[in-house]
Every structure is written in structure tokens, then in C-alpha cells.
Batch of 4 targets.
Target 1
Amino acid sequence: MRRPTALLALALVAPLAACASAESGPPTIAWYVNPDSGGSARIAEQCTEESDGAYVLTTTLQPRDAPGQREQLVRRLAAGDTSIDLMSIDPPFIPEFANAGFLAPVPDEVAEVVTQDVAEGAVEGASFGGELVTVPFWANTQLLWYRKSVAEAAGLDMSQPVTWEQIIQAAADQGVTVAVQGTRAESLTVWVNALVTSAGGEILQNPDEEDPQAVVPDLDTDAGRTAAQIIADLSAAGVGGPQLSNADEDINASMFEGDSAGFMVNWPFVWQRAKSAVEAGTLDQAVLDDYGWAMYPQSVAGEPARPPYGGVNLGVSAFSEHPDLAFQAAQCIVDPQKQAEFYLSDGNPPGSLVAFDEPEVQEAFPMADLIKESLQNAAPRPQTPFYNEVSTSLQRTWHPPRSVSPDSSPSRAEDLIVDVLQGRALL
């Protein structure tokens, strides 16, 4: 006769065995992705198959906007959530994640592979403190878009670098617009940073500083005043359009499709948007044929422009239970061929330089070589753990564009950044 404890033990064995059987199989690697047109899910399926049973890569959608993505990830990582293995991160938030200890260190052998033939701007944007802390994935940059007919009428040679002063004057002379992102949002910081870095400056002297009390802004300089003067000149010339203070990337793309279009700084999505509008019958082919593209305008004549850098990099969570497999999956995701396919399906330019050379990419994106060149010259936004405070302070003091002055805006921004970081002001 069995004792009751033996019977109880036998009763527990069966469900435990069934549970173990249910959990058998390759580990699941959870990748938190930005919303796209399905490209990330397709890559996850491909990498799962190519892993030969080492892992199953799944995708989970993050919120649509970058601040929402940051908030979701920060809350979960701060709680030590182990359910996140791999995550797509907007470049400006990478220093914050690295400084907080949220990112698993990138192994040297992985870093060597994922930075080979990758745009300099993308590698710089994936780093913090001189060390690669994330894996470069897709990259992005802004171009100067122009109407060929307007540039010709203005006598501009767009095969050569042009300055902001030139395009503002040309737009005023021709009675057309210069579409820029003047709304009080992250896109304004993108614009100001590009103007400042193109003038040879930086928003912060020491962005790597981990002590907020020691962060030193660097806007009240010749470069900062040059940037402010460009915005003041554009506003005074009246070429920014009636929605300048509220204009974002989508509003600018719509402006550029209209009759008053002259010039625009914007991301490459505008090309696909216009092509889709032609196919839908809402935009004339003649308008698309009038689209031209060039390197971002120079802030100072003769000084190379530093175009905006954007995109997405891959971070492995410090709390992942499978960091080695997560890095293995990341290397699969950023394979140049997959980046080229992702560009074709979702319109996100690759960080890999060789991916631009694919014949299909060259055919679909006639400005591919220019994007490739621009990414080599692109400057990331300040790579600081306190980016949110810095960016918001800048937006407060450089908006609306008509209020920007070289005599006051740079110093006001410096004062607010310091006050916020030292706890004397709230945003």
C-alpha cells in the first residue's frame, strides 16, 4: 500500500512532465519593433528559419511615436523586465539607455561584424562614450529637395553645394516656399542641430558627461548664432509658409506637392509618398518629374553640411535571459541583403553602405547614392543621457521660429538647459 505522500508525488509528476514537454524547443527571442509596413515581421521569420532551430524570433509593436516608444521601454527596463530581449531604439535615446545600465555590452566580435561597411553617421549614432553600445540597423538622413523648374529660374547650379542664404533668397525672388520643420517638437531639434553642427559647433560641449550638474551647453557661440540667424532670415523673408510654426515632416511633404513649392529639407519618404500619389491619381506625373534632390544646405559657405541623422538601432536588454542569442539574431537582422529588402519594402534606408549598391535599390531610389553620401556626413543629435531635457529646453527657447534671434535664442537655450539639469527649472 502506497503512502499518501508517495501518491501526492506521483500526482505532481504528470503535470510537471507535461509542462516540461510544452516548454521544450528553441528559446523565444522577443524583438520590440517600431511600427512599419511588415518588414520587421518578415525579417523575424527569415532569421528564425536561418537560425536552424537555435531560436524563434518574434516581434512586438511599440507605440507609433518615438517618445511613446522610449516611455514604454524605460518603464519596463527600469523594472528589470526579462521579457524583452531585443529592441529597436531611436538613436537620441541610446545614451540614456546605456547610462542607465539597460543595454547588454556588445561583444567585440559582434561589434567588428556589424560595423563593417556601415555609414560613419550610423556607427556614431549607435555609440556612446566612444563605445559601440547598440547594433546599427537602418539609418536615415535629410536631403535638400527642390523643384528643378524653380532652381533653373533662380539660376542655381544644384550640382554644387548651396547655402541656406542662397535658397532663402531664391525662394523669395521666385515667390515660392522653403519647407522646414518649424513645429515645437523633436523635428525642430533635428533642424537646429543640423544648422549648428553644419556651422562647426555642437549643442553640448561634453555630451558624454554622466553628471547632469556638469553638462555644459555650447550654443551661445558663433555656430549657435549662425543657426539662429538662418532661422530668423527664413522667417523674415516669409518663405516658410503660413504653417511654419506648426509644420512637421508630413505638412512639409504636402507643401512640396503644391503649386508654391520651391525647396524643402526632409527625409527620403517624400519620394515614395509622391510616387504613391501619382499612382493613386492625386498628383500629376509632371510634379514628380520636377522633383530634384541635393545635399543638405550649408550653414556657412564652403563648410560641408552635417545633415540630420535618424533611423533605428538594435539594443540587447541587460535583463534578457538569452543575450547571446539576441546578439545572434541582431546580426541576422542587419545582414546587408535584408537591409536592402527592408528599404525596398518599407522605405527605410540601410545603415549598410553595400546595401545601397543593390540594383533593385538603385532602380527604386534614384537618390540612393546621395543618401549614402549624406549618411557618411550626417551628425547625430547630442549623445547625452539627458537628451530629453536638452531637446525639450531647445524647443521651448527656439519656438516659434519668428521669435528666434541670434542675439537672444542661443543664450536663452543655454540658461534653460543648465537650470533644468541643475534642478532650478521644470519642463
Target 2
Amino acid sequence: MHTPNPDAHPQASTQQTQTQTQPHTMGSLEVRINSAGEDLLEGLGRVLSQIPDTDAGPQQLAKALGIDKVLASRILKALRAPDPMSVVHRVPGPEPMRRLLKASSKLGVDPQDLSNANSAVDRFETLIRNEIGDRSALEAILSAWVPEARREFELRRKQAAFRAMSQLKGAQADVYAEAAIFYPSDDDEHIDVVWIKAVIGLHRLRPGVRVKFTSHRQIEDHSKRKTYTLSGDPVDSVSSATLKDYCSTPTPELDVHHGGELMHYMLKDLAFGASSSVDLVTCEVNRAEIPRYIPDSKNRKAWASSDINIPSKKMQFDVLVHQDLYNRSFPELKIYDTTINGQADINDPSRDMDQLDLLESIENLGTGTTRFGSSLVPKYRKMIEEVCATLNFDPNTLRGYRCTADYPIHGSQTAMIFSTQDRPQ
């Protein structure tokens, strides 16, 4: 959970580091990739137009040419692409395309059309080899221009990163979910912040690995911060911080280690392998944690973030806000790389350079817990309702915002940012 700090960081100075030739170089490459797509579309299109029943679909084309259905499907999908860049993204490699053209030559296709198509494939191969490097680098470039390519590019790379990090760290989770609840304090001057963390399917991949996740706050004076369990006891052991009805059975045992703004939870059980998976849900209550009113002159933002410190297949991050709080605008989403400079304070402009350009977005869940269901966290709505009832919060006054991700990047920080409110006149 992260909150506004009235002492703003100084604006970071920036320098222009790109040369004037870079935009021209990239623009020229864009033209050549686009031209390659046009040539492939023209060449392959003319060849396949001479093969009977091409419109019948990939199975018929595969049968007619004696090629596999996957190759036939990719070629037809490429020819239906909306623009040349999408053609380049969708076509298979040069050698599979040459196999298709060789098979087409046996069906009476015009030799000149075959020659033109083969020349287009040769130019495509030369472009990749001499100017780009390989197909993976080409997909990275296309991700900037083709939405479909970007989605596939991000997902595949994030999945590969997940596999590598989970094996290196020796642990992983199916779901890493966090929810922050912002609710007015009784004194009407502050905001209570409740933080729920759910790690589903957590397990070691190999023996002897330390499994840890961390709760981190950035507030003005953490020496005055007191974190309580849902029952009102100080969090000095995780046994009382866990929501046992929502954990796996037996309840996972953890050690808690305090460190200033950090609270580390260490998994005690030394079992490993998928059969040892556990579900762990904790809840921290922070009464009057942050000021409710921040003068507009301070130009500060309120924020909450989820830091991915366990390699996970899925992420769900919710912020549930009382209807009277932060209602001036829709929240903003920023995702940071924390590997060098640590956790980002979104009010520090020098951290803007650490932002990751990803496709994640914020979903407006609406108001009331009936809108807060989840397919990732078991009994999620019931859990939120129970937390609210215990704390005497009215769940129907909460509006929800959600960000989800497949294979969230380990070491990333997903932040939702809210405009603060000045004291009413």
C-alpha cells in the first residue's frame, strides 16, 4: 500500500540521448518491412488463387497441396490480414513458405507467379537475416506497430520469463492476488487502509528454497504505523493475520519479520512439489493510516500497488474505494521495473523512466460487493464481505477497480493512482 507524501521529490532533469538519425533509420526499416508484407501478400495471393477450392479452408488446402494443416492455416490467416505489417506477423518462416510454393508448382500454377512469390520469400528472408537478426527480433519490432503481434509478443515473453524465474527461485504460485480497501476513518480526517493478500497454489519447485512474500508501505512516518489483524490484535505472528477459512487445510505456517515499512512473511513448511501447494490469505488492518485531505497545492497523488515478488501464472490486483474518497477521476495505471531502484514512489518523477510499457489496463468493477466476483481467488466475494462486516464497513459504498495479468513480470510493481481531495470549504 502506498500513499501520498507531502514532501515532493525534485523534478528529475532529462537529456536527449537519441541521435537525430534514429527516427529516420526506424522509419526506413518500417517501410522495408511493410514492403515485404505487400510483396508476400501479392505473391502468395496470386499463387493460391490458382489452386481449386482454396476458399474451402485450411483442411482442403492442406489436402490439395499435400502439406500439414497448420501451415495451410497460417498461410490463409496471413492472406486475410488487414495490412502488410500483419501479413509479416502471421506468415510462417521462409522454408515452410517455399514448401508450399513447391507443392503449388505441381498443380499447374503459372511459373511466373511462382517465381515472383519465391522472390518475395527470398527478400523476406534477407530482410530478417541482414537487417533484423532473427524472427524473434522481428516480432519485437512488430509489437510496436501491430496490436495482435504485441499481445502475442508480451504473453510469450512473459511466460518464458515466468518459467525461468520460477525455476531459478525454486518457487511459484498459480495466482498472486491483492486487494486494498480505502475507507474513511472514524475521525473523518484519515483513511483506514485494509490490505488483503492471497497466494493460491504456492509451492516450492525444489527442496531447501526460502519462500517469502512481503507487505510494503510508503508513508510519511512509519514509526507511528501500527498494523493489526482483522480481530484487532497487533500483527506479531502470521497465525492471527491469516484468514483461515480461506486458506488451505491445514493452515500454512509462517514466520513474520518486521523491518520498518516492510513486513516479511516466510513459509515454514519445507515440503516441495506441486502436491505440496498451499493457499494462503492474509489481512492487515491499518487504522487512520493516511490523511484524507491533501491540499491541491501539494500536487500529490494517492496510490496503491502490488509488487510481484513470487513468480506467478496470474495476477489480480483490486482497489476498493469508499464512494466519498478519490472520486474526482478514474484511476491511472503505471507499471514499474523495480529491479534497480527498488519500489517506486509514483510521486517521484525521476521514476518515470522505470515504467514498463505493457498492455495491462484497469477494469471498472462497479459499486457493491455483488460486483466483486473473481474466477481466480476462491470465495473471493464472500471474503470481502466478511472483512467488511468485521470492520463495520458498508460494502455497498465501495467501488472497485481491477487489474489482471497473465504471467506478471517478477520484480514489477503495478500501481493504481488516484487524485487526492482538498478539504471541503
Target 3
Amino acid sequence: MRQNFRSTFVLVHPTEILEALVGLKDVRVLAYERLGPRVELLIEQTPRKVLCPTCSMAAHVKERPIVRYVDLPVYGAAMALAWKKHRMACVNDACPVNSWVLDDHRIAAKNCLLTTRAAKWATKQVGDGRTVSEVAKELSCDWHTVNDAVTTYGAALLEADRKRLNATTAIGLDETSFVKHNGHAHPRYATTVADVANHQIIEILPSRNYVDVAGWIESQSKDWKERIVFGALDMSATYAAVYTVMLPQAAQVVDPFHVISLANRCLDQVRRRVQVEQLGHRGRRDDPLYRVRRVLLMGEEKLDNEGSERLSALLSLGDPHGEVAIAYRVKERLRDFYRTYDLDEAKAILRELLEHCLRKAMPPEVQKLGRTIKTWFDKICNFHIARVSNGPTEALNNLIKRVKRVAFGFRNFENYRIRVLLYAGKPNWRVLGSIVVR
């Protein structure tokens, strides 16, 4: 027997479907219209008794201006909400309040032309790495409409999500270029404050000056400052001073990458000087020291027998006084310092290397390296206590550069800060759903 399913269907008025689409209590759909590829809904808040915020007397609707907002697309079609707002007026003629407009943060925030749900969706999309122009194209609106919404809701999310600050015991400070000016103006730098334990950005500061960086740390809670055990840095005197004054209990840890880079630069400077002294010109293709320049920067353990023999042969030809060989051995001994896991052994290696570098017979570049090691001796050794580095901060700076490339650069620092923190700050996106922006 055939079963009749027709009785299971219920006829629903189109307005009921549209009200379900809006999905807001006390908000009704008055009409809908399709304007080309765009669907527009005319909505209004259900009338209710309103009292004057000043004298608490009854208020009446003075006029109903219509404000249009961009909403999320529906079934591939662009959608807009035309909100018929209520401009209220007090019945008391003596009341100083002339009129005011009733707002509803569930529909849209003040001074935002995206609906609340569209603004939160756009913020998440931009935070995932999409460009503002790409999101604006999908919503069929202009760039500024999306950017203003992302800035508003992104700032609210970062302010509400305190977990980013409270989860760390080790921070890193590093500078990154914010704007590179043309002409003779100096580039502007920003400071990245990173959680090197959890590999996320905590904050972006508008400069690298001591006052600005120290001021930010001072503004944090006492519990947060007492929780910081280690502070990573890259041999910056400014950042070292910040740690010393603002976080005296934190052990400062110089990043191993920058120490080894310093030794590599020392080795390259010695090679270049010896090259000019021996041949009277910069390195050329067939010169022994030019041919060996890349091998010198490789770790000794990565060289096979053929590579080791090639290194020895070329140094014997181009380095008659052994200065380049000395700088090479210093670099390798510094790498031995980082390969050991015993603190006392590491200190003994570095102290022996320091004494060796400071001898008067050493090349001037090696002596300069020794003086730098002497200045930062304890902070370099602290790596073997903390086993943290500024490497995560450097990696996060690469994410910052990606955001800058996607955006084709920034001029407004606040836009730059919010975009970077949304992308690389690992905010708790679940908080965004409960954010209220009025």
C-alpha cells in the first residue's frame, strides 16, 4: 500500500523562514527584497516600553531611520540587513536629553557596518591568514568595512583573552621592522614580546626603546611579573636593561643562534681581511679563501674526509699565518660549548675559550669576540640552566613577516598589532563567540 507523505508537510509563511534566518529574539522581519545578486531583509526590534536614561520618564518613538548592514551570504547570495532603528525622545520637555537611538549589540555593534555574526566570522577568517580584501569580496562589501570590524572585534578578543599572558614562565624580546621609510628617514621598529615556552606572541609594542618596553612590563600584574623565571634576548643592551630593572628575578638567557652567528661573522671578517692582505683584492672565484668560504661556516662534524682535506688544503694555500684557522677553531669550540649538557663542563669550556680569545697574539677580530663573550658570559651560560632560547621569537617574527606580505605592508600600527596577534598570538577563538561590543 502506498503511504501518503503529503500530510507530513507543513506550510510555513516566508516571513517565518526569514525570522528563523535572522534568529534573534524580539527582532522581527518586516519585508524582504532581492536587489540583483543581493538579498535584503528589513528588520525591526519589537516595540517595548522605554524610559529616559536621565529622568526615567516614558519615551516615545520620534522617528525610525533605516541603517543597512552587511550580513553573511545565504546560499551563495550576498545578504544585507536593513535595520529600522528607533530614535527615542523623552516626553519631558524640561529633560536635557533631546533624543537617542536604541541599539542592539546582537544585531550590530555601534559604528560597525557588519552585523555581529558577520563581523565575528570576518575576524576569524582574517585571523586564519586570509586577506581583508578577500573576505570583503566574499561579503560583497568594501575593504574598510571589513577592516573596521576586524579591528573592533579583534581588539575586544585580545583584551578578553587573558590566557595568552598568564600561561608563560619564560618570555623573549626581539625587534622587528615595522615600516621601512623611503629616502633618508630611519625605519621604525617594533618589539615582539613572545612566550618562548608555548611558542606564541604575547604582545607587539610600537618601539624598541627602553621606556616603552619597560613601561609595558610595569603595566602587567604583580603575579605575572613574579611568574617569569627566564628572559630570552639576543645580546641587546636595551632588552638586558629591561630585564635587569623590571624582572630582576628572571635569569637572562642569550640566544645560542646569535652567539654562533657572532662567531661566524668573526670568522668571515678574518677571512676577508687575510684575503686582502695576501692578494690585495676582494675574493675572486679562483682564490683559495674565497673557494673555502662556505665550508668554513659548516659544522666540522658535517664534513666528510674529502671536505676536511679540501678545507686543510685551501687554508694552507690562502692562510699562511693561520689566522683564519684560529678563528675556525674558536667557532667550533663555541659549538662544543652548546653540545654539552653539563653546566660545569660548559662553563669550563667557555672560560677556557674566553682566555684563549683575549690573548694579545690572537687576531683583532677574535679578541673582539672574546670581549663580547666576557660581557655576556653569565647570560650565555644560563642557556644550560634554562634550555630556552629566543628561537621561538625569531620564528614568530617570520609569521609577522608573512602577515606583512599578505597585507602588502602596514602604516597604521594598531591594525598591524591586531592582525599579527590574531594570526600568531594563538588567541582563544571560543571567547570570540561571547564577546559583546556595544
Target 4
Amino acid sequence: MSISIGSILDAFKTGAGPSSSHSIGPQRAARFFLARSKQQPARFRVTLYGSLAETGRGHLTDQTIAQALAPTDCEIAWDTQTDNLKHPCTMKFEAFYSDGSAPTVWTVYSVGGGNLEDDAGPIGNPEPATYPFLHIGEAIRWCEENRLSFWQLAERHESQLWPRLGAVWDTMRDSVARGLKSKQVFLPGTLGLPRRAPLTWQRAQQLQSPQRDLASLSAFALAVAEENANGGAIVTAPTCGSAGVLPGLLYYYETVKEVPRQKILQALATAGLFGAAIKANATVSGAEGGCQAEIGSASSMAAAAGSQILGGSLRQIEYAAEIGMEHHLGLTCDPVEGYVQIPCIERNMMACLRAFECAAFSVLTDGQHLVSFDDVIDVMYTTGHDLQSAYRETARGGLALLWRKRMTRPPPVSS
């Protein structure tokens, strides 16, 4: 276990959807493997195990890897066995050479949020920030002793924080705007799922608040989630599958409530701090912890950001983040046909609305509560490991199983 949280920027990776663990992570792994090959390979073979094999086709994992290794021929092998895997998203890369020399072999794990590890530790992460704590409870005490807010704490410990967060926010904003303006009728894949963000946004304009506010939040979160499902450029927050929650909330505050950009970036920094604590102490991988690790984490991060924008104290912000996770505990990851569409897109919308409510409620309290954010993150991690593998991004249980049964059911006999 770490002795400090990592950089808050580690929660915000820019890349193409639809999945941070199943597309961004494998893409990064392929590029790292290509760079470490001792000579130009004649061909590659990549074996995908566990969750990557179960849902990789719907997540475009094979296409992403092949594109990263192109133009060299790449064979993709699928192995759904989960016994004795160190991580449910395991990949084995092999490079073969025309001179007959021994192949280069590398086993690597996509651990969530686009992050990678091998048996030696993290791969390709930026220089870690050196925070003097591992848990949010410790961060609160440190901030109180030094009279700092969460975002000021991040400012002290991250180099070039505001330009870097500015670039993150610009990409987030762009993904919302693209999703709202998209003329695409149906998302790619066999489900034939229609885009809903543009029409939701249009109809929101005809409403009066508070219905208009809730409809706007819904449209903004849907816009990013649909862009992600379409393979568009998004920012993990902390994953691709949950990428619509935080941008949806912050876009609402900036465009509807006219919150200044700098306050948006400060809220983004606070969200990143909570995301970094989750990554350091638990997981954001749906394959490891279920959807609670993705959508629950995103809702926590967004709730913390929203509470800060509303003027929340350190303890009110922490309370908002705790509520955001507590009421997602046990949420399963059961993508229909392996696509990041059903139930993923609507979950982004619902988690954004919940984060909005968590933030609003937190500032009505004194911030005191019995279950801490750190406690609920420990529970989330334990709960994730207790979930059957069918409910951890394998598409073998829940809604995914229901859909498969429906598709294989014989048609009714006409009378």
C-alpha cells in the first residue's frame, strides 16, 4: 500500500473512449511494449485474460491494441479464465522476430483509470506528487493546522497545477459541447441505442427551474457519456465509463450558474484530491470493484467539487463525498453485450444528479457524521472483492445476462 496519495492529475487522463481499463490502458500498454522491443518485431501476439477477454470486443480492446502496434501484424487471443490472475484485466504481450531470436514477453495489468502495473510496479505514471498523507481524514487535519482549503493543499504539492487542470477542463468542456450538438442518431454497436443528450438539452430549455436545472444536469452528463460510448476524446474522471459525472456537474455551474473559471478549476482540484485518495486506498476499476468503484468514485468526486462551489467547509466537502460513495455501495458492473452503453450512460446521469443533491445537502449540515469518507472507501474496496466475478465487468451477470437470455429466447409461436 502507498504511504502517500499520488498526483491528482492521475485521475484525469485524456484519451479515446469507451473504457479507461479496456481501451486507454491497453493502448498505453501496447505503446510501452513497442518501445521496449529489442528490435523491430515481425509480428505480435497479445493474449487478453479475464474481464478484458469477456468484454474486450464491446470495449474495442482488440482494435485499440492493433492500431497502437500497426503496421506490424498483431494476433489477438482471448482467454476468459480468471483463476490465478493477479488482476482481472491482465494482458500478455509477445513480440516475435524474423531472425529467430527469443521473443520478448511482457505481462501487464490494466488497473483502472488508464493506469498500468506489472510485477515490478506502476508503469508510465508521471512523477508522483509528495503529499504528507494517505487518507482524506489526515488531509483535513493537515489543512486545518495550516489553514488551507483542499485546493490550496493541491496547489502546494502539484507542479504547474493550474495550466494542467486548465487543459483538462478544456477537454471536458469540449466533450460536453460535442455531445450536446451531435447529429448522430444511434451509437455504434449492435444495441442500436439512440443518443439522448441533444433532445434532453433542447427540452430542458422549455422548462422552469428546478426542473430545468435537473434536466440540464442530465443532458450534460449524458453528452459526455455518449461521446465516450462513441469512442470520442474524453477525460477519465476517474474512468471513461464514469467520465460524464464530474464534467456534467461543473459544466452546469459554469454555464448555467456562471461560476468563474478559476473556481471551476479549484473545484476540479478538490475532486482530483478525493479521486487520488480512492485510487491510493482502493480501486477505480470496474473489473476489480464493480461499478461502485467507477460511478461511485465519480459521484464522490463531483459531490466534493459541488460542495466546495457552494461554499462548503472542509468537513462539509468530505461529508458530500462520503454520501456520494455510500449510496452507490454494491453497485454491479454488468454492461450489456460488453458495450459502455447500458446501463453505463444512464448511470452517469443519475450519479451526476446524486452528486448535485449530496453537495446541496452537505452545506445544510455542520459537516459532522458517523461514517467517514475513508471508512466508506474501505468498505467499497471490501465489497468489490466480495462481489461475484459475474458482477465485475465480465458481462456474465445482471443486466448483461438478462439481455443475453432475451436475445436467445425463441420467438413466440403465432396462433
